[in-house]
Design brief:
With 222 residues, this protein is of the alpha/beta class. It has one domain (4-80, 98-186): HUPs (Rossmann fold), CATH 3.40.50.620. The chain is 34% helix and 12% strand. It is built from six helices and five strands. It has helices at residues 14-25, 44-56, 101-115, 138-151, 167-176, 199-210, and strands at 4-9, 29-37, 60-64, 120-122, 157-159.
């Protein structure tokens, strides 16, 4: 039986890579991976997204959105802004928020799904994100899903299977799916090695530690 197609937002980070494998193998879907070049500080994740899509043999589209020309208050867009080193739950991490990013990207994904007559869009919001990122919370997901279904003839659903799971859970799921974590990148910096000090590095290392696993990425500080 032919697998049902869906759209999966794939950044090349750990969360979205686990999601892509999960949707393909646990949900029995054929993902069309959708990535965005939005002026982010580096392109390491995008390159890994390409690798993941190629390895899985799935279609991959990259859309360029010039968010760096619109927003100047996010450390993920402005290389002159110092990246905070606090824990990912600290209020200082708000400087890493790209305003309304998920709604913008999901809007493109929903439009693509409607164009292709596909009824599902997946993104990798998870519980750890709730502290800092408003568009990763159920309070955002639920009305976004309803709006999408009302706005499309295909009644496109916006789905986030990990919305109530932690980063620890995602690493565990990825391990069970036998994902090569070297094909994922979490660090906000785009250097040769992950920095080990930014919030996403701390969160990632913490998740591996809680699973009693060793992260195969090389770090400047660990």
């Amino acid at each position: 039986m032919k697998k049902k197609e869906c759209i999966v937002l794939l950044s090349g980070g750990l969360d979205s890579t686990v999601l892509t494998h999960y949707v393909m193998r646990r949900r029995d879907r054929m993902p069309i991976a959708l990535s965005f070049n939005y002026g982010q500080r580096h392109k390491k994740e995008l390159n890994l997204a390409r690798q993941t899509a190629k390895k899985l043999g799935i279609k991959h589209k990259i859309i360029k959105i010039p968010l760096d020309k619109l927003f100047d208050n996010s450390a993920l867009l402005d290389k002159k802004t110092k990246m905070p080193g606090e824990h990912y739950t600290h209020k200082n991490q708000r400087v890493t928020v790209v305003p309304n990013r998920n709604m913008i990207m999901l809007s493109f994904a929903i439009g693509l799904a409607e164009n292709l007559k596909i009824s599902e869009v997946y993104y990798a919001a998870h519980k750890n994100d709730h502290a800092i990122y408003p568009d990763c919370r159920p309070a955002f997901l639920n009305p976004m899903n309803k709006a999408s279904m009302h706005a499309t003839y295909s009644c496109v659903q916006v789905l986030a299977p990990f919305i109530n799971k932690t980063k620890k859970d995602l690493v565990g799921i990825g391990y069970k799916l036998d994902i090569d974590f070297l094909t994922t990148w979490s660090c906000y910096e785009g250097k040769k090695f992950a920095c080990g000090t930014c919030a996403t590095c701390q969160e990632r290392l913490e998740a591996f530690h809680k699973n009693k696993l060793m992260d195969p990425l090389e770090y400047e500080i660990q």
